[in-house]
Specification:
The structure is a homodimer.
Chain A: E1 2-5, E2 10-18, E3 24-33, H1 40-58, E4 63-66, H2 74-93, E5 98-101, H3 103-111, H4 118-128, H5 138-160, H6 166-179
Parallel strand pairs in A: 1-4, 4-5
Antiparallel strand pairs in A: 1-2, 2-3
Helix pairs in contact in A: 1-2, 3-5, 4-5
Chain lengths: ~180, ~180
């Protein structure tokens, strides 16, 4: 399961292996960066290349991307939306299903409540993955939390069980539509 | 000069050849579509493939993309922003400089005033390119207008004159920064 916290300057990436009993193992965590002084087209190409490297290295079965809202900070929201488009594109180009989750869905899945702060998310991610230290930076912890959230909400079970039954597929499609 | 009017369902593309005397010739006009019922990651991959086909077929020197604003229609703005990210990414991956222009800059460049309506833009694009009919659909006309706008604002001259002088490069970089 690959989680991506999209951003133009720092794009958090986290890969986890989730077992059917919901236990999870850290596979990779990192941040793909682009130079804020570079032209936007070059920055997006750097982010795409960095995300493709992660997909190539770890062969995730599913990609989860944090959902961006138009009403958030206007100065950065367009860049974040563009980076999220790149993340989803790379999933699509590799034939991987993608899902988006809101920050509060992620916080609720990982800590038990939707308004948890960053430290609480980092702490729970470290506990679940049995890490000796908090995952750093926060973007990377968010990406891991996103991957865990998606796995626990059914994504891992669906991916691990192979082809979906017609009923599972119908449910999955309906859920995807509802998330748009 | 390739102009792209980004959209998830319809992405307008227009390629024009612009001479130093500002006269222009239509090279290609079209719309890249994606199925509104398909998952977002597949839609973005379809749009990316369609845009790459246009770049491969016509080898533009510069890509101009309509700038998306966060405050516009919230239901579609995220998809439009993601599509614009894909358009800019493809420029970046091919090493092509990209520029963004606002709709009012485009209207002002093509018709002489920034609040022109769609029919006025289509009419002027048809006149400039000596077309027998109005370019259809409107997304395609907008993409052609965008390409003309960018060419007339200095993009074509810069691209045609080969490597930039240091002063031109500094101006170009400053302009790019200001447009973010």
């Amino acid at each position: 399961m690959l989680g991506i916290d999209p951003g133009l300057t720092r794009c958090g990436v986290g890969v986890v292996d989730v077992a059917p009993d919901r236990s999870a193992r850290l596979v990779h965590v990192g941040v793909v960066r682009s130079d804020p002084g570079a032209p936007i087209e070059e920055r997006l190409a750097v982010i795409a290349a960095g995300l493709r490297d992660v997909v190539d290295a770890h062969s995730p079965q599913v990609v989860a991307v944090e959902r961006v809202f138009a009403q958030h900070n206007r100065h950065t929201v367009m860049g974040t939306a563009q980076a999220s488009g790149i993340a989803l594109l790379i999933a699509g180009e590799r034939g991987l299903p993608a899902a988006t989750h809101t920050p509060s869905e992620v916080k609720a899945a990982v800590t038990g409540y939707g308004s948890a702060d960053k430290l609480q998310v980092q702490t729970m991610v470290a506990r679940v993955l049995r890490l000796d230290a908090l995952p750093q930076p926060a973007d990377a912890a968010d990406a891991l939390a996103l991957a865990l959230c998606h796995a626990w909400r059914g994504g891992a079970a669906a991916a691990a069980s192979g082809p979906l039954t017609p009923a599972q597929k119908a449910w999955h499609d309906a859920e995807r539509l509802a998330r748009r």
